[in-house]
């Protein structure tokens, strides 16, 4: 019965997104409601009993859950997910917009290029996109950086594919492996992993993977040549990319101030974790290192940075308010999709999918579990296109594997394997694939020969370093 439910749910998502062209929010909610309606009473009772045994629910709460209807269970799971990640995503959106509006993002890119020089431009592009990919959504990072890739191609006369893929090597990996982007956040919440732990391990795996991925980008660059074509689009981003002008002449903040909103949450959360391990809990340290508070403090720092850089503008307050409004509008959509994905995953768990998958991998090595997590996520990503939806769905399916002592290593490695699996396979179903092709001037065929193998290789490399970390540092 469970596999019929899974098959029907996946079919609903695919038909809704690919054929009917519905928004992912509606597709995920529809699939979740269908799974909830198809779940027998016996499976609900089993799930409730598991929660009682895990001391998560009281018998009264379990009884109320079993008696509730499908729509009520879906709404409850939707609200729970939104409550867990909503503030984080909203704050991350504000940080990202403020970095762009204040010129801080451009400062980071320009300083990186100035330090290494044009001949090491791929390394500068990779490092810049890596840093910006932590608080800023990857599509925005690519929009910001592709004009530099086009300018470098004009100046140096070649290696255009390398410049484009270098942006992917840093920013795209950070988007899937390091909070506070939505995918890693929801995976951490579903698997009940400390965000600080995922941040630190994600930084390590992402840094190593980006370096190797850049070497792969150099290989692809030798095999495929893409000419620098004029962009016919007339929108602002396209025109900017065509002209190679990625910044205005307005003053920009110093590098240290530009990096502060990115580094601050990592420092605050990391300090809290270290203090807890070495000394113990302290109310003040626990407060400032809370993930919501840390991201909130960083958002305030980003807003102050934006205000400082626009203080000579008589319209500075209105500009700041517009930036926040734009950030929350974009972040609100992401929160809704993430919550819908979390609710969909919760309905599958209540139907018993996690138990079935746990039985399938029972007796396998820890490495095999990571490979299965990678393949499950990659399959969902390839079929429906969204890396975030793939991560959220896979985390819901594999949640039981992270519980208890079933794994020979810390469950954070399961989260990283899921993040790595969200990279393959970027092709026609992936909106990011079209963004990259459109903004770089690639044809579909060129994208399939460059972007698709690059993203696949990035995922495999990230899985390798995840397995290596789980083997050497199981924690």
Task: Please characterize this protein's 3D structure.
Helix content is 77%, strand content 0%. The protein is mainly alpha-helical and 475 residues long.
Helices and strands in order, then pairings?
Layout: H1 2-19, H2 24-38, H3 41-53, H4 59-67, H5 70-101, H6 104-116, H7 121-132, H8 138-156, H9 160-177, H10 182-190, H11 195-223, H12 236-243, H13 255-278, H14 283-288, H15 291-309, H16 316-351, H17 353-360, H18 366-384, H19 387-397, H20 412-421, H21 431-440, H22 444-472
Helix pairs in contact: 1-2, 2-5, 2-16, 3-4, 5-10, 5-15, 5-16, 6-7, 6-13, 7-8, 7-9, 7-11, 8-9, 8-12, 8-21, 9-11, 9-22, 10-16, 10-19, 10-20, 11-13, 11-20, 11-22, 13-15, 16-19, 18-19, 18-20, 18-22, 19-20, 20-22, 21-22
Organism: Roseimaritima ulvae
Family: Belongs to the GntP permease family.
Keywords: Cell membrane, Membrane, Transmembrane, Transmembrane helix, Transport
In short:
The chain is mostly helical and 475 residues long. It contains 22 helices and no strands.
Order of helices and strands: HHHHHHHHHHHHHHHHHHHHHH
Question: Which shape, going by the Cα principal axes?
Answer: globular
Pick out the low-confidence regions: 233-248
- SS content category: mainly alpha
- Determine the mean pLDDT: 85
**Can you summarize the main beta sheet?**
none
How many domain regions?
1
The N- and C-terminal alpha carbons lie at a distance of: 37 Å
**Radius of gyration from the alpha-carbon trace, in angstroms:** 22 Å
**Number of continuous helical runs:** 22
> Which band does the percent of strand residues land in?
under 5%
Q: What's the helical proportion of residues?
A: over 70%
* SS elements, strand count: 0
GO molecular function, one term: gluconate transmembrane transporter activity
Protein name: Inner membrane permease YgbN
Keywords: Cell membrane, Membrane, Transmembrane, Transmembrane helix, Transport
Pfam families: GntP_permease (PF02447)
């Amino acid at each position: 019965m469970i596999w019929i439910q899974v098959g029907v749910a996946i079919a609903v998502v695919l038909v809704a997104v690919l054929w009917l062209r519905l928004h992912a929010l509606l597709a995920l909610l529809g699939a979740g409601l269908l799974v909830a309606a198809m779940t027998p009473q016996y499976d609900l009772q089993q799930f409730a009993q598991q929660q009682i045994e895990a001391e998560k629910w009281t018998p009264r709460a379990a009884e109320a859950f079993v008696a509730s209807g499908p729509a009520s269970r879906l709404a409850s799971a939707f609200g729970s997910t939104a409550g867990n990640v909503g503030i984080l995503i909203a704050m991350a959106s504000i940080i990202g917009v403020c970095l762009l509006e204040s010129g801080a993002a451009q400062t980071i890119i320009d300083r990186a290029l100035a330090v290494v020089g044009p001949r090491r431009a791929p390394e500068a592009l990779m490092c810049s996109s890596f840093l910006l990919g932590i608080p800023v959504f990857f599509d925005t990072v690519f929009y910001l950086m592709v004009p530099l890739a086009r300018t470098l191609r004009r100046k140096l006369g070649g290696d255009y594919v390398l410049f484009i893929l270098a942006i992917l090597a840093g920013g795209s990996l950070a988007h899937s492996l390091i909070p506070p982007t939505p995918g890693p956040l929801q995976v951490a919440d579903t698997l009940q992993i400390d965000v600080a732990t995922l941040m630190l391990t994600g930084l390590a795996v992402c840094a190593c993977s980006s370096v190797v991925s850049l070497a792969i980008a150099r290989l692809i660059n030798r095999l495929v040549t893409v000419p620098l074509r004029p962009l016919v689009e007339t929108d602002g981003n396209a025109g900017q990319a065509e002209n190679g002008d990625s910044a205005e002449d307005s003053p920009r903040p110093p590098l240290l101030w530009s990096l502060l909103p990115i580094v601050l949450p990592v420092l605050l959360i990391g300090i809290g974790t270290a203090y807890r391990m070495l000394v113990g809990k302290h109310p003040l340290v626990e407060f400032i290192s809370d993930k919501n508070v840390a991201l909130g403090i960083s958002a305030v720092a980003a807003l102050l940075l934006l205000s400082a850089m626009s203080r000579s503008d008589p319209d500075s307050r209105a500009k700041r308010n517009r930036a926040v409004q734009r950030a929350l509008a974009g972040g609100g959509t992401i929160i809704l999709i993430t919550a819908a994905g979390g609710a969909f995953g919760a309905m599958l768990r209540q139907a018993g999918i996690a138990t079935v998958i746990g039985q399938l991998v029972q007796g396998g090595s820890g490495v095999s579990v990571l490979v299965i997590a990678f393949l499950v996520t990659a399959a969902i990503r390839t079929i429906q296109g969204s890396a975030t939806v793939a991560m959220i769905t896979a985390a819901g399916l594999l949640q039981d594997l992270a519980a208890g002592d079933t794994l020979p290593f810390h469950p954070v490695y399961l989260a990283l394997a899921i993040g790595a699996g969200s990279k393959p396979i970027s092709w026609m179903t992936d909106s990011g694939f079209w963004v990259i092709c459109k903004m770089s001037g690639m044809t579909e065929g060129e994208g399939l020969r460059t972007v698709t193998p690059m993203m696949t290789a990035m995922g495999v490399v990230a899985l390798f370093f995840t397995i290596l970390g789980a083997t050497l540092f199981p924690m």
